[in-house]
Structure formats: structure tokens, C-alpha cells
Amino acid sequence: MQLQDNVAIVTGASSGIGKEIAHAFAREGAKVAIADINMQGANDVVSEIEAAGGAAMAVEMNVMDEAVVNAGVDAVAERFGRIDTMVSNAGIQIVHPIEDFPYEQFKKVVDIHLGGAFLLTKACVKHMYPRKSGSLIYMGSVHSHEASALKTAYVSAKHGILGLSRVMAKEGAKHGVRSNVICPGFVKTPLVEKQIPEQAESLGISEQEVVEKIMLGETVDTEFTTVQDIADVAVFLAAFKTNALTGQSIVASHGWYMG
Ligand SMILES: NC(=O)c1ccc[n+]([C@@H]2O[C@H](COP(=O)([O-])OP(=O)(O)OC[C@H]3O[C@@H](n4cnc5c(N)ncnc54)[C@H](O)[C@@H]3O)[C@@H](O)[C@H]2O)c1
Question: What band does 225 get if pLDDT is binned at 50, 70 and 90?
């Protein structure tokens, strides 16, 4: 087991990519905190992990609320003794052409992805620095490197996450904390299922064309990346032992982005 006795907190772990990362961490021996606004989903994931013999706890956490993030992270450290791995993964998607994009919605996307990542990092390093050890993992996207129409908010936030992670690689180094970004291509989760009809309507094309041309058109094999693919990368980063691998972004996207 690659993560025996590791303590991990994963935000947005009630669904999709975060949920699979939580399961993969638990299978590798980690104790996992499932932090999400969706408590029904979080409790279900905890039950599944416990039923499989693992250790997990649910934490109600809106990543936009600093006091809530601090209290949630402290509760995990209290229950499991420390924080070794942070996965900042909670996210939403809102798509509009800029001329129709309400500023409130732009701010919400940036606040959840980038503001949430900042707050979670700030809360977690308090527990990591004194122990001279920790792994910060951010869920970026191919959209941390590439742009797509309709996604001013999401692409801005995901590019910002690269900057945040790189600063943390520099600030964290002397404390034994490394920092990396995972950049998935399209993964069929609720976040993406919702976009298919929305983009079809905004772009005036069929749903099939959205999938084949917009989402997978630049991949080498017209295939979706899977939640398991991303969980494998997260386990690799969490288990990596030295600062040799810090300040990086790992793109898993069927060759959509080659950087
Ligand atoms: N699905 C993809 O194709 C894809 C590709 C690249 C990157 N990503 C990124 O992966 C991450 C997870 O996305 P997913 O596809 O699994 O989506 P998802 O919708 O399946 O899961 C997102 C989770 O985040 C939670 N969440 C939303 N707002 C929150 C908040 N304010 N505080 C705490 N939790 C909140 C939701 O309740 C949900 O459980 C996101 O950061 C997303 O941008 C997804």
C-alpha cells in the first residue's frame, strides 16, 4: 500500500473525480476526509470506504468560507492526528459568452476554484509546516493551459491555480511541502454531463458534435479521460517522496494538450 497511515483531505469528494480519488487513497491505506457541501454524498462515500475496510470522515465544507475551511481542516487533524495530503478539487462550471456572463457568476466560479484552493492551502500548511512534510495537489484542467470559448471564468480560475501551485512549490520547499497540479482532459462526471446540452444550445450544434468536436476533437483517440485515470495520478503525487517533483502540472488528457 502506497499511502499507509497517510492522512488526506479531498474537497469535492462527494462526486466525480474527488470521490474516485478518495476511494483510491483509502484503498492505498490513507485515512481520508471527504469535504463537500453535499453531506448526503459525503456520508455515502464514507460508508462505502468504511464498508471496504478503510477509514474516512465526512466534513461539511463550503470552500468559499474561510472560517468553515479552517474549522474543517482542524477537525480532520484533530480526528486523524495530522494532514499529509491536500487535494483541492471542489469545483463548478458555468458557461456563457462573455457578453452574457453575469459578473456574479464569474466571481462564483473563481471564488470556488481559486479562492477555495487558496483558503484550503492556507489552512492545511498550518498543519504541514511544523511536521516538515506534506503534499499539496490541485485539480487544474487542460484549461489551465488551453482556452475554450464560453469559459472565461473557468479558464481564468484554472490558469490561476497553476500560479498558486507554483508559488506554493517555492514557499513550501523549506518546510518539506511540495505542490503540484493535475490537469485532466474531459472526464464524464456530472459537471461535464451538464455542459453538453448547454454548449449545444450556446454554439447552435448537436450534443454529439459537442462531444466529438468540442470536447474530444483534439485528443489522439477521441476518448474521455476517466476518474480512475485521474485517481491514479493523484495517488502517484501523494505517494511521491521528495521535492524533486514540485511546481509541476501533470496533464492526463488523451493527448489533447501536449506541453
Ligand atoms: N470532469 C471534467 O471533465 C474535468 C476536467 C478537468 C478538471 N475538472 C475538475 O475536477 C474537479 C472535480 O470536478 P468533477 O468533474 O468531479 O465535478 P462534480 O460535479 O462531479 O464534483 C464536484 C464536487 O464539488 C462539490 N462542490 C461544489 N461547490 C463546492 C463548494 N463551494 N464547496 C465544497 N464543495 C463544492 C460538489 O458538491 C461536488 O461534489 C473540478 O475542480 C473540475 O474543475 C473536471
Answer: very high
* CA nearest neighbour of 226 among 248, 254, 259: 254
| CATH superfamily entry for domain 7-187+226-252 | NAD(P)-binding Rossmann-like Domain (3.40.50.720)
Residue nearest to atom 8 of ligand 1 (CA): 141
- Please report, for the chain, the start and end positions of each structural domain, with discontinuous segments joined by +: 7-187+226-252, 188-224
Q: Is 112 in the pocket of ligand 1 (CB under 6 A)?
A: yes
145-175: buried (b, 16+ CB within 10 Å) or exposed (e) per residue? bbeeebbbbbbbbbbbbbebbbebbeebeee
Catalytic one among 103, 129, 138, 154? 154
| Residue 191 CA, ligand 1 centroid: distance in Å | 6
pTM score > 0.85 for this model? yes
In contact, 43 and 20? CB cutoff 8 Å: no
Residue 119 confidence (pLDDT): 99
